[in-house]
Request: fold
Amino acid sequence: MAVARAPERRIVIVGGGTAGWLTAAYLARTLRAGAPGGVDITLIESSDIGIIGVGEGTFPTIRSTLAAIGIDEARFLRESSATFKQGIHFVDWAETPAPDASPTQALGAVPGHSHYFHPFNFPHQGNGPELLPYWLLGGAGDAPFAEAVTLQKAVADASRAPKRPVDPPYHAPLNYAYHFDANRFAALLRTVAIELGVRHLVGTVDQVVLDGAGGVARLDTSDHGALTADLYIDCSGFRAEIIGRALNVPFKSCQDVLFNDRALALQVPYDQPDAPIPSYTVATAHEAGWTWDIGLNDRRGTGYVYSSRHSDDTRAEEVLRRYLGPAAQGREARLLKFHSGYRTAQWVGNCVAVGLSGGFFEPLESTGIMLIEVAAHMIAQFFPWGVQGGVQRGAQGEDSARTAASMAATARTYNALMGKRYERIVDFLKLHYCLSRRRDSAYWRDNADPATIPEALRDRLAQWAHRPPSRYDFVADHETFLPASYHYILYGMGFKTDLEPSRALYHRMDEARHEFRGLRAVTPQAVDSLPTHRALVEQVYRHGFQPPPLQKTAAGRR
Reply:
């Protein structure tokens, strides 16, 4: 007797770029595209719409995502012109630069400029106590927090890589992410997704036809006819073709908290072909925003993110070119306009928004690609197997009601989790601005105004003045940034937490000092044991990662 085969489930992704192709590749791998019992995935993109990606930075989660897709790390590095990223080096955020300080691109400490580091490594936790309270109580002397609790700052300052050629792909002694060329990365993802069974269509969606239940019935295209699916994923960028234009989901603006709404991007060469490659983003604060500066193997990706309420485009370009100096001569800057915020619902009916169609924040902490990763992971977990063709599989009665309820419940769960995640990212980004002691421009004065700080963040700061952040301040599934990241920003910016009234509770100061001394002692050895960043990148480009040769045993020598 023949066994009935379950109908094939279908996904249609509208839009390519990093959002579309990363989502397609991840879902193709996890939902077994093209395999019996898997899904059929189609991605349609227009040939006329380019890739916005200018930040070119990622979060450490990208390593597990790429590994899950099955992309070899050396291949990713070569084909994306990628380099390693160990954190973010912040310049001039905490204090106003000295009046006679010149614009700086230098790494490390520069006279007249304040600076701090947000490393990706967690604070050291050996056999001793948690180090933060003892650092606050002076146990590490005057060492900056990131320098006192991890050796990653010293490694990055020395232009060393986070790993060695013999380390396994996606693993290393130090935590890391990447910088890359956004166009080349999207091209790699497209190749891999197609290899995994994704059907690629080039064309334009002419009309989104809705059903009677608040979902999508089909997509009409002049090139490929009607496209139907169980789930439609909107990766159409700021156009938000389905979630915004067709389904009219409101956009929640965050401009009253995060002022920046413009970016000028400019790619420049290195001064010398063999110049050291910084293994972190350099984020330098200016009068109405901040510049990013990242190192690829053959160029620097730079830009200025700023507020149009506090500067005009002409002045912004002057700031960027003054920062870059001669490297910018004869090169044209690209202007991008954006609005910080997110859709009030990311999943509506049988449509999910991923990437810019769902929301956007400035690239200060590389949240853009990380949010694409989170969305792809959650869609894979929540994929609605109980529907077919956008309509409940149960023809009528209880089956239909049950599947409709399941889809609605899935959307509510997804929206609640993503909504909280967006809210918490807003708080974390605002933290970088509201703690600044700069008062040299209206931009920085406005950022410090308590009226522009979300209430939840104000409450946390009031508590953190008397105790450091703890895990109880955070709900794991709502967070992008763990407590350690808050620690690095808070105390890098000079935030004061007064533990003197509770000093008696911290009775392990001798052990903590031992840990601080131990970290200082091993740091030079760690630096010496790692290759320079440029040397590792060039070696991996040529030869990939090379495991150490197997040691011959005594039996093997006989």
User: Anything to note?
Assistant: Residues 84-163+256-340+427-526 form a domain with the FAD/NAD(P)-binding domain fold (CATH 3.50.50.60).
